[in-house]
Amino acid sequence: WAFRPADPPAGDKYPVGYFRAPVSHTLLLSGTFGEMRPNHFHAGIDIKSSRGVAGDPVYAAADGYVSRIKVDESGYGRAIYINHPNGFTTVYAHLDHFTDELAAYVKKKQYARKSFEVDLSPAHGEFSFKKGEQIGTMGNSGSSNGAHLHFEVRKTSTQKPVNPLLFGFNVVDNVRPKMHALKAYFLNDKLEEQGSREFNLIKLKNGRYRLKGDTLELSAWGAGFALKVYDHFDGVSNWNGIYSLKMFRDEELIYEFEMESIAFNETRYVNAHCDYEERVTKKSYFNRCFHLPGNKLGIYTKKINNGVVELYANKPAHIKMVAADVAGNEATLEFWVRRSKSPAVPVAGKIYNYLFPYNEGNLIRTEGLYLHLPKGTLYENLYMKYDVTPERSDGCFSNVHHLHNYRTPVQKYFDIGIRPTVPIPAELKPKVFVAYCQGGEVWNCGGKWKDGLLRASVRAFGDYCIMVDEKPPVVKPVAFSYNMRGYNKMKFKVTDNVETIGRVRAISYNAWVDGQWILMEYDKKNDMLTYVFDEHVGEGDHVLKLIVKDAVGNETIFEKSFIR
Ligand SMILES: [Zn+2]
Q1: Mean pLDDT, to the nearest integer, of 481-492?
Q2: Are 443 and 411 in contact (CB under 8 A)?
Q3: 63 C-alpha vs ligand 1 centroid, how far in Å?
């Protein structure tokens, strides 16, 4: 028997009351399930710490056994996965510490594998917890800014994350979502975007919003809409994601999404759900209420005519958008829209030299470039602009290939190959990489030679060329000196001149004391390498040797004596 709310948001699929909160302090959320983040939807809820610092105890949400423990220099940091007999797995990420028993197990594996990063699957029953037993402490490990607990509930069989708030946690929420702006997209008769315009909203009482003036007049055959809207909770100032958005045309529901469950292999479709250009140019997230043809996201429960509103000059359509949170608080925007009576403004022809259909693979092969986009890379047909300019700056060994622009989203990795235009000296050949250049910055995308071209797998449009990196990483002692007596850790800041992107590892490292490998913890967000003194280094004289490598193998060796 379980307590059920009067109107369960998603039927009986999710047992309400089965899980207890993973913390004992009041649940305040700095992030909700499904909110839009760069290249993904947030897969869990972010629970604030009680005092803004690490250390709050984290508890098993129900009886279960530890199925996975992962330690990552970025991403989830220190994370525990617990499988429960009801078919769900709970995930606790960015932990500061594991309980002693788990910590000892992890450390043993880290030393055995000589790696800080580990992904462990303890045997069924090796570590079991009762509901409410402590499993660790809240922290800031991995890609986290500020101590919090990232908490997920997944269907165990598929590992598909489900919105944790559907399980009935006690989160106080009497606050309606807030609407910020509407965007209208002018579509042609092929439903291709010809332009867009943003409209401010006027706030009325009781969560109602309207536009300035009665009726939008758009000179287009059809319109798509997108809404900037955020949810808010009692007691916090955070802007969180909403649960659902409905759009009605003349009282008929034509478009709806619900943030109930999103699989990891579809989470990148957030780039089709949001207005990607707004995201990358203004860090602003709009919920698109019309459907791009290459978007395979499963959150849409309604999409009549793909959410596109056909426009007529003599027959305005009434549009109503309703945003809601899990608790059922709503905000509503209503307006009228019709086709402008004045003739459609002629749209300047698009400048392009390739047309890439979204539902096919696409290829460009020239003297200097090989480009292959597998089917499923694009969300809509792309009027692709490609040109080449020479580059004469130091460290650049090819033309710069301008692949369309960085404001256009890409779903899948695609292959690029670039031919050098200047001979590369033999000693520099191992130091080359395919460089992605954007806004004055350079990213290493990796690179392997094939048929005279340097090839890499990339996932963004923009400017590419071949570059060389000869600079080794910089190792700067932050907490290290000859006399380490009385210190419980040593610390180094490790930085490199070139950042990496995609699957390329930026920094790799190993450290030894007196020839014995020691476990250094790498915290990527602040470039910090830390060794916490343990049983491997006793009192007396020692020699530390630390080797740090960048992506192309440039190496820095830091070797110094110390006493403990
Ligand atoms: Zn999170």
Answers
A1: 96
A2: no
A3: 23
